[in-house]
Structures are given as structure tokens and as C-alpha cells.
Amino acid sequence: MNFAIYTISKNEAHNVEAFMKAAEGCPVYVLDTGSTDDTVALLEQHGAHVVQKTISPWRFDTARNEALALVPHDVDVCVSIDMDERLDPGWQDKLREQWSGNIGSYFYIAEWADEACTIPSVQSLRTRLHSRHDYEWHRRIHEVIRPLPGVEQVWCDTDIVVKHYQKGGEKNYAPLLEQMLAENPKDANSWLQLAAELHQKNDILKAVDAYKSYINLIQNDESEAIRYCRAIAWIELAQCFHKLGRYDEMIRAFLSATAAEPNCREAWTHFSHIAMQMGNAPLAYGSAMTAYNIKQPPYHAATEAACWGDLPKQIADHAFGILMKGDK
Fold first, then answer.
1. Which of 72, 101, 231, 304 is most buried per CB count within 10 Å?
2. 195 and 113 fall within a common domain
3. 3-state secondary structure of 16
4. What is the domain range of residue 20?
């Protein structure tokens, strides 16, 4: 089986050595979109095949499709990762042993709870393994891989782990998302992604509007994956209301999150945490124990590692202690 890694780059000199080391000697194909540092020279020194090209107007899907075009036609499986991501050791053996389809996923740690990047915070399955000739990238930003017309997808989930190590300032993707929404105001995913961007930048009032737009667009979709996404959006909306001091709306948003997907452990855990902050130990205990008794994480959704760890039990134990003291 032949496989290759492909990616895009721009001013990633600080990532080259670790990126290439994690490749474990696998062929690497890079489309550089305008580096002004030593990215290209360093990649070539480490054996990568690099082509430079300006993408204008900028689109992530165009750039990734140009990078994919660099991969030789005799490659069987393509691995798409970014320069600030690392494949865990042994990934090639896992791919050889486990690959059986034409589209596949790896386990992705997107964010960390500590500066040393040792405690996972946000994690999910990520679909970025695919056959060489059956797929293309789609969407100007937050791009996704999709099958070419007539291709039947055959899924393969692997045990490969990819870890994200972002350094430096956060990138501002809001303008690109706003362009997409100007073209298609009913693009629900773009509303959710814009809301997250605005929330991260503490533009809370605009984030509230964006989260509401997302929820309104998907409110009638009762598929399992969308229910979970709707619950997460309500959680984020509740946190926005908390920052604005709009506590009644915050509570209603948390209740909406639990109603959207009763098996969303994040919803019950965050609700229990807020209840403790408000001094409502009975509500905190009940919510935390509800979270603790949810044992099965969602299959195709990002999860918060803390919520799926010991945090619900810790909150429940704390709340129970307060309740017992109150009974004496």
C-alpha cells in the first residue's frame, strides 16, 4: 500500500522539524502559499516535495485541492494534516493494518487544557484520510472533503491519533465567514463557526446573534449529530449570557441544551458547574449525576475531555457534601 501526506503552508518554519519527524519518512507534498521565512528551504532539506503558488482570491478548498494535485497518481491513501499537527508514532503501521475503505478518520486532539499540551481539552474524530482519486475539498473556509460525483463512500475509522499544537496569535477567519454568509445566509455551519470566532474574540453581543441564527436554521433537524451540535450551541449561548450578566436567559439556554440532546454530557456538566456557582446545590447535584450517568460519548461530534472525565463526579460529591451539612 502506498500512502502520502499532503498539506499547505505559509510561514511555518517553526513547525517543519517536528512535522517532518512525525511523518516517519512518509512522502510529504506541500503547497506553499507565500512563505517569507525559511519554510520552503527547511521542508526541502527534510525531504518534502514543495511547490509555491499564490492563491488569489484566497480559498482554503482551492489551496488544499492544489496540494492534493501534487500527490502522485499511484498513491493509494492520502493523509491530510496541517503543519501545526503531529501524527502519533506508529501511525503508518496502523494505517496498513486498518485501512479498508476510501474515506477514513483519525482521533484528533484539537485543544489542550494546559500550556504544556499534556491534558486534552477538545477532541473528536476527524475525516481527513481518503483515497487518492475519489475526493475533493469544498468550502472557502472550514473546508471539508467530499466524494466526487458517482463515488460511493466506504468508511474506515482508524486508531491513528493526530495532535494539534497551535502556537502564536489566533487567526481571524471572521471576514471569510462573513463573505460566505453574504453569499448564502442559510449556511448554518458558517453561522456556528462565525459565532465561535466572535465568542473567542469576546465580541459577545454579535456572538449571541450568530448562535441564534445557527440554532434557528437547524431547529427542525432531529438527526443525532445535529441534535448534539444544537446542544453545544445552546451551551455556548448560555456562557455568552453569563458573561453579559443575563442570568435568566443563561438558565433557559442551559435547559434548552439539555432538551436539545438529553445525552449531551457537556450540557449537564456545565449546568451543574453554574448551579454550584449560583449556590444551588440540589440543582448542581442532580445535573452532575445526570452527566455522570451518561457513559457513551457521541460518535461524530467534538467532546470536552473534562466533561467526559471525573468532573461531573467531583461536582456531584461537592454538592452532596453541602446538602448533607444542610441536613444536620
1. 231
2. no
3. helix
4. 3-160
Whichever domain contains 126, its CATH number is: 3.90.550.10
pLDDT tens for 96-154 read 999 999 999 999 999 998 888 999 999 999 999 999 999 999 999 999 999 999 999 99
| Residues 86 and 231 grouped into a single domain | no
Q: Do residue 211 and residue 142 come from a single domain?
A: no
Alpha helices in the chain (DSSP H): 13-22, 39-45, 60-68, 91-98, 174-183, 188-200, 204-218, 224-244, 247-260, 265-277, 281-292, 311-327
CA angle 163, 148, 158 (to 5 degrees): 30
Cα distance between residue 128 and residue 105, in whole Å: 6
Contact 3, 95 (CB under 8 A): yes
> b/e map of 5-32 (b: 16 or more CB within 10 Å)?
bbbbbebbbbbbeebbebbeebbbbbbb
Residue 304, classed as helix, strand or coil, is strand
Closest CA to 59 of 37, 79, 31: 31
Per-residue pLDDT reduced to its tens digit, 157-213: 999 999 999 875 567 788 889 989 999 999 999 999 999 999 989 999 999 999 999
User: Does residue 46 lie in a domain region?
Assistant: yes
Same domain, 187 and 244: yes
The closest alpha carbon to 230, from 196, 200, 199, 264, belongs to 264
Give exposure, 196-205, as e/b (b: 16+ Cβ within 10 Å): bbbbeeeeee
Residues 188 and 261 reside in one and the same domain = yes
243 assigned to some structural domain: yes
Residue of 95, 102, 233, 104 lying closest to 157 (CA atoms): 104
